[in-house]
Amino acid sequence: MRVLVLGSGGREHALARALRRDPAVTDLHCGPGNPGTAAVATNHQIDPTDPSAVVELAGRLRVDLVVVGPEAVLVAGVGDALRAAGIACFGPDAEAARIEGSKAFAKDVMRSAGVPTADARVCDSTSDAEAALDAYGPPYVVKDDGLAAGKGVVVTSDRAAALAHAAACDRVVVEEYLDGPEVSLFALCDGVSAVPLLPAQDFKRALDGDEGPNTGGMGAYTPLPWAPDGLVDEVMATVVRPTLDELRSRGTPYVGVLYAGLALTSAGVRVVEFNARFGDPETQVVLDRLATPLGGLLQACALGVLNPSTALEWTPGAAVTVVVSAEGYPAAPVKGDVIAGLAEADAVAGAYVLHAGTTVNDENLLVANGGRVLNVVGTGADVAAARAAAYAALGKLKMRGGHYRTDIAAQAVG
């Protein structure tokens, strides 16, 4: 099987790494990829949000499957263009990708499907937002209706800050606050059926103790020793399958990953948000544990032949990933700082480094090229051992201005 992965972040490096482990994948390409994917695949300099360029590249490489990483690629209609050209694509078409591209659309789908979620109001003006904030009270939850790279949500008890965020967006969804821990669950979907992956938890805030601004995610771990029994079955029955049925009934069958961001509230499981692609950085830990060959699973989804009774196999133990971010992230990340110590970090037992926002400069040195620069993955017999491996490897890395949280998965080990 010849596979092309679209994207250039840590999620795509994790996808490429997992696909390389699949003996059925004989030829692996990334567009554009990064210096990390270059070690396991052939990189191609391309704008992955350009449908015609992607179709040309996929055709020229004669790939059997295109795997889409970032949400912007999906919303740009790359999946539609590939399917129109007769090329199998793992990732929804632009209309179905609105489940992530528009918070208002997602709420409408959930309402129609009877999926449990927070009560919400769509606001097109400041006066609408003011009324909604007063209706729900603090803590205030204000979400940019469109794509915001994981940073479009403000949760605050400061009414002025909530209003300021609403005013900065064209359209927002204001909703009631959901209590309880959050869980990410990915389901692989073929338009009709779905198979769940392991639940994971990510850490959105920039600083220790869940302080600071929201980010795209500063770390993640799996499995979740505290998750209630039967959680995955419940989510598949009450969230994933009803959502798939609703989208299919609207004439937009959903093919790809349906990412359910969930809150385990005192009143039960509630959907916080949907994403139309693999989460970043949860993918880095979930795929680390996956023993079932990934390429065959994604191809079955793309071709509409996924067996809903497929029992995935998982490697025993746990995985923890910690994100190293550039100075100034998330507001104004600094690019160009030299990264050192990768070989030493990779040499730590049970750990390895994924590239997220890196490039090679004119002097052939590896440098930061994005907000989230590296993902350090630690593995072990349990979360404590995996966490120890990740932080041991982090201690080997050097990057001026580099920052990472020191408390990823800490509460899971007591």
Automatic annotation (TrEMBL):
Keyword terms of this UniProt record: ATP-binding, Ligase, Nucleotide-binding, Purine biosynthesis
Cofactor(s) named in the record: Mg(2+); Mn(2+)
A molecular function (GO) term: metal ion binding
Catalyzed reactions per annotation: 5-phospho-beta-D-ribosylamine + glycine + ATP = N(1)-(5-phospho-beta-D-ribosyl)glycinamide + ADP + phosphate + H(+)
Alphabetical list of InterPro entries matching this protein: ATP-grasp, ATP_grasp_subdomain_1, PreATP-grasp_dom_sf, PRibGlycinamid_synth_ATP-grasp, PRibGlycinamide_synth, PRibGlycinamide_synth_C-dom, PRibGlycinamide_synth_C_sf, PRibGlycinamide_synth_CS
Enzyme Commission no: 6.3.4.13
Enzyme class: ligase
Record has Transcription regulation as a keyword: no
GO biological process, alphabetically ordered: 'de novo' IMP biosynthetic process; purine nucleobase biosynthetic process
Residue ranges of every copy of the ATP-grasp domain listed in the record: 107-303
Pathway: Purine metabolism; IMP biosynthesis via de novo pathway; N(1)-(5-phospho-D-ribosyl)glycinamide from 5-phospho-alpha-D-ribose 1-diphosphate: step 2/2
Short name of any one Pfam family annotated for the protein: GARS_A
Family: Belongs to the GARS family.
PANTHER family attached to this UniProt entry: PHOSPHORIBOSYLAMINE--GLYCINE LIGASE, PHOSPHORIBOSYLAMINE--GLYCINE LIGASE, CHLOROPLASTIC
Protein name: Phosphoribosylamine--glycine ligase
Originating species: Actinomadura rayongensis
Lineage: Bacteria, Bacillati, Actinomycetota, Actinomycetes, Streptosporangiales
